[in-house]
Amino acid sequence: MLVPLSWLKDYVDIDVTPDVLEKKLFDSGFEVEEAHEVGHDISGVVVGLVTECEPIPDTHLHVCKVDLGEGEPVQICCGADNVCTGKKFPVAKVGAMVYATAKDHVTVEGVMKIGKGKLRGYDSFGMLCSGTELGVSEDMYPGAGYNGLLVLPDDAPVGADVKPILGLDDWIFDISITANRPDCQSIFGIAREVSAILEKPLKMPALDYSECDTDKKLDVTIEATDLCPRYIGHYVTDVHIAESPAWMKRRLALVGINAISNIVDITNYILTELGQPMHAFDEAFLEGDRINVRRAHDKEKIVTLDEKEFELTTDNLVICDGVKPVALAGIMGGLNSEIRETTTGVVFEAAKFARDNIRKSSRALGQSSDSSARFSKGVDEYATVMAMKRALHLVEELGCGKVTKLHREAGLNNSLEPRVFTASIDKVNKVLGIEVPTADIERILKNLNFAPEIKGDELTIHIPAYRDDMENYPDIAEEIIRMYGYDKVVPTFLETAKVTSGGTNRKQKAELKLKRAMCQTGASECIHYSFFSPDDLDLLGLPEDAPERKAIRIINPINEDLSLMRTTLVPQMIHAIKRNQKRGRLYGRLFEMGSAFIPKSLPLDDYPVERPTLCIGVFGENEDFYSLKGIVEKAGETFGLKFRYAAKELPFLHPYQTAAVLLDGEEIGFMGKVTYEIQKAEEMRVSAYIAQIDLSKLEKYYEKTPAFTPIPAFAEEARDLALVMDKNVTCQEVEDVITSACRFVSDVKLFDVYEGAQLGDSKRSMAFTLTFTPAEEEFTSEALDGYVHKILKNLNNKLGIELRS
Amino acid sequence: MQDLRELQERIALIKDEITGGIESLANSKAVYDFKKNFLDPKAGKISELMKSMKDIPAESKAEFGKSVNELKNWALGRFEEIDEQLKAKEAKLRYESEKIDVTMPAKHIMTGYLHPVTQVKNQLIDIFASMGFSVYEGTETETDYYNFTALNTPNDHPARDMQDTFYLSPGFLLRTQTSAGQIHVMEHQQPPIKILSPGKVFRADDDATHSPMFTQMEGLVVDKGITLCDLKGMLEVLCKRMFGENATTRLRPSYFPFTEPSVEVDVSCFECGGKGCRLCKGTGWIEILGAGIVNRKVLENCNIDPDVYSGLAFGIGVERLTMLKYGINNIKMLYESDLRVLEQIND
Q1: Res. A518 pLDDT band, cuts 50 70 90
Q2: From B112, B137, B237, residue closest to A589, measured CB to CB
Q3: A489, A27 Cβ separation under 8 angstroms
Q4: In this structure, is residue A341 part of a structural domain?
Q5: What residues make up the domain containing A8?
Q6: Chain B residues with beta carbon closer than 8 angstroms to that of A610
Q7: What is the pLDDT of residue B159?
Q8: What does the alpha-carbon distance between residue B112 and residue B141 come to, in Å, rounded to a whole number?
Q9: Quick one: pLDDT at residue B43?
Q10: What percent of chain B clears pLDDT 70, i.e. is strictly above it?
Q11: Predicted model pTM
């Protein structure tokens, strides 16, 4: 929130520089996001008295002599229409910094340095300034809004810096307030903290006013007591709507609020100063002498001050008169009872509304205001009571109406008296781990207005009503240490804790092992969002009933592209390959390990299955189905597993270059070449291949400790066989027949494939190296011949395979 | 062969022949062939000399034999000598013929890398595992209870505004913090507890410095007598191991609903050592994590007696740490899978 230093000084004497104050606020838990002087861009501008002013013929310009209190007056040319002798104006001397404006003289276009100039042959040693050029608006200084020179008071000392005169030497702190301290969302709230930090007394705002009699009747009731713990209404008569005084307009301007009229400005002033949103109703439009706080009826309508109409539900809270809703509680007043120029009677409202109700209503209706933002953070009833008094005081101070005796309060169940809480000092210190001297504890808590009483180890504090956040002794510990200084916390290393055994478990280790194995194949790990776009499912061309289409929808996504929980990792991998190619990287290997989200039911009423999934993507001239297969194999090998493969069709993969990945007969994933249609749609320049494996199917193997197989005692023998077969016989079939025909075959490796006229169109030849591993004794060459013979016989019988001649 | 004199002449002749012929031999093969002329067991000239021994009178046999043997040994020596010379020459030639330009590029060995975030995650796990932390990975989808209510953030709590939450249904959401894991662990385990809970978290924030998904690592210690001093001590160890022995830490007050007191932890700027630079925006400090003493209510929610046990918790933004450590200036880069980024960091 924005805090002008000058306003803060109303309530606490600040005798430190802004830098020191910033540091002290920071150390005690109030991060100052920005602190700057109001006129931080302006320098070298002084009060100048125009002593001579002659028009330059045929122009709108004047050539002036200006007394800057430095001996001889200087010559300055000026184009403003209100320049004249005998008046004082801000003068930017040569070398001064001011705002540069566009031709309209009101649009700021940056900062400029004033140099010596020459206009129509006349030398000019500086510039007479407008409010805009100094960054001063009409609200910040009366007359500054004029599109011409800013006129300074006659008593301004010639040659003096204009910054103090125009309030440009004030400072603005932008302080971020943590969610547990709504009581600090105001100038006065910050003043309370500063008073404690600087150990200076807190000065109370003026709350006094006198009351007159009135015949007016008003009844205040709260129906929705759960949503409105306190409501105060007070009637002000003889109101005359006018502009607020300059000091009030200036303060509002400093915190970015536009002045509207005295009554409305008072409510905004209170909001800033005390953190209590207030509202003012034009009494003439309140019917039935009544204010009632209730839940809206279903489909009830209200038009707010900004002329927007809302249809309400019973979740929304409204303020009603005897007949109709007159305000959307805590969010915005109704247009029907707004303050106008003709208003003569006002009912002020100061209330506390339940913060979550205001927040939810505000979100649901899409209507927000400074008030609703403030209520959503939490308002304390202490401020509610004080705010009404302060508003009535201001009415009197501004002379904009007569405060009557008509005061109505409803919902007085919550005490505004301090809560008494007792704690053990030892326990407080044990939260911190250091022993804070009792005298310091007492001093700090006293400064924070907790009225501490200490008897031995027993600490009694009186928690002011605005400190809702104080719940238990750790809160006291926090209050003490933030004032005592976190730098006094001494590092220790779990001196009283037991030794524990730590580290990752088997599954976590297995997953990291798999990631490292993927890296060894040359693939780099990527991480993609857990959500994707409905378009991604369309990109894959999945049919309407595909399981991947049964995805969880995020109720409030950032946008449609991030609106579904992913059911497959493939689309994002395709996009990643696309992005790489688009950036000129035409080869690469990527993998991701992450979750696919599979709902057990929709809408979700149980945790979905978060299926651990491995997705691999390769692209480039040197990649093909088999290079991807090598990586997939590696994933299996990591856990001592050998996958099998069977041709498969998937809408997003090449119809003849796609395989199901099988483990123990179960399909655990797929792999293949991305279709040319998708490659084209994604503007790929080289082909991409993608595999996806459901890792939950591998999990049971994570536990397995690798076992050593003894090295064969006798030498292995190898035989090469070139076989001729039908083209549709698969390599896998051949391998299976070979291994089942002879138990000594430990490996079958394809090393050559040949197709050609010689063999005929329907045939091809595959050459394999068979490795025979002996068990009990060395093979004789007769025995090996026998095995080969048996294998060939089996191949011939089962698959019609011949030995190539 | 009649007498020894004739023998000596023959020997001299053979020696001359060998000495004369050997110089012109060009390679090992020629040496072998030339050698055969003299030492071939059947037709070699020296072998023949040996054979003629039978014709030598008995009294001369000994001397004859000695002379021929000397010749044979001399010849063998010579052949071996020349053979070695030639082999050395051949080897030299072979080497010369295989001269390469060592500055030509290496053969590419394709290597993949763990994601930078995974690398930092692993580093953190290593550090905390050595302190006795075990790793607990919760789910990315959570219930409102575990993500908020159990963490002392009931429905009307203002802290809910601090985090824009993605909802999947009225009761389920995408976790906004890995702190949710705290509750799952504490529900099933009594102290001593030391867990580290890394994982993806989600917030409805998407701009230059925010990503709607990022990685958090939550740490939790619950035991007897855990204090703010322990928190500072432990995080100081973390910072020294992560950023070097000169790193120091600073605590400053903050607010999280599930800790009380709550602190932000800053580490002394590892770029400038605390003097003030662009990385630390002139402050000398870099914010790296939020932490605090576990709120009594959180312990109570998990049936752990807050009068017996106390705890500390901290939450690290892994992307932030990754970016700081490697000088990556845009969080989005971590999610674009640009190989030019992924292949750079191998820590």
Answers
A1: very high
A2: B112
A3: no
A4: yes
A5: 2-38+171-198
A6: 139-141
A7: 67
A8: 30
A9: 82
A10: 98
A11: 0.84
pLDDT digits (tens, 9 = 90+) for A182-228: 999 999 999 999 999 999 999 999 999 999 999 999 999 999 999 99
In angstroms, the first-to-last Cα distance of chain A is 91
Q: How confident is the model at residue A481, as a pLDDT?
A: 96
Q: Smallest Cβ distance to B112: which of A474, A521, A603?
A: A521
Q: Please indicate whether, in this complex, the C-beta atoms of B251 and A486 are within 8 angstroms of each other.
A: yes
Beta strands at B193-202 and A453-455: parallel, antiparallel or unpaired: unpaired
Q: Is A747 exposed, middle or buried (0-12, 13-18, 19+ CB in 10 A)?
A: middle
Asked if the structure places residue A710 within a domain, the reply is no
**A609 reaches B (C-beta below 8 A):** no
The residue type found at A715 is A
Interface-testing mutation among B125, B160, B169, with chain A (most A C-beta atoms within 10 A): B169
Instruction: Report yes or no on A518 lying in a domain.
Output: yes
Dihedral Cα A129, A132, A135, A139, nearest 10 deg: 120
Helix or strand holding residue B341 (H, E): helix B339-342
CB neighbours (10 Å) of residue A782?
7
Final residue before a domain boundary, out of A371, A387, A410: A410
CATH topology of domain B116-342: BirA Bifunctional Protein; domain 2 (3.30.930)
The domain that holds A456 is classified in CATH as: 3.30.56.10
Same domain, A194 and A230: no
**A573 and A657 within one domain:** yes
Distance from CA of B238 to the nearest CA of A (A): 11
Selected residue of B166, B312, B347 to mutate for chain A interface (largest A Cβ count, 10 A):
B166
Q: Which residue of A has its CA nearest to B154?
A: A356
Domain boundaries, chain B: 4-97, 116-342
B1 has pLDDT over 60: no
Tens digit of each residue's pLDDT (9 = 90 or more) over A540-572: 999 999 999 999 999 999 999 999 999 999 999
Note whether A239 and A335 are same-domain residues: yes
Q: Which residue of A has its CA nearest to B257?
A: A180
More confident of the two residues A757 and A55 = A55
* Residue A708 forms part of a structural domain: no
Mark yes or no for CB contact A359/B226 under 8 Å.
no
Query: Which pLDDT tens digit goes with each residue over A53-89?
Result: 999 988 889 999 999 998 889 999 998 999 999 999 9
Residue A653 has pLDDT above 70, yes or no: yes
Check B229 against A522: CB less than 8 A apart.
no
Cis peptide before A608 (omega within 30 of 0): no
Instruction: Indicate the residue among A702, A726, A746 that finishes a domain.
Output: A702
Domain harbouring A796, CATH code: 3.30.70.380
| Predicted-complex ipTM score | 0.86
* Residue A597 touches partner B, C-beta closer than 8 Å: yes
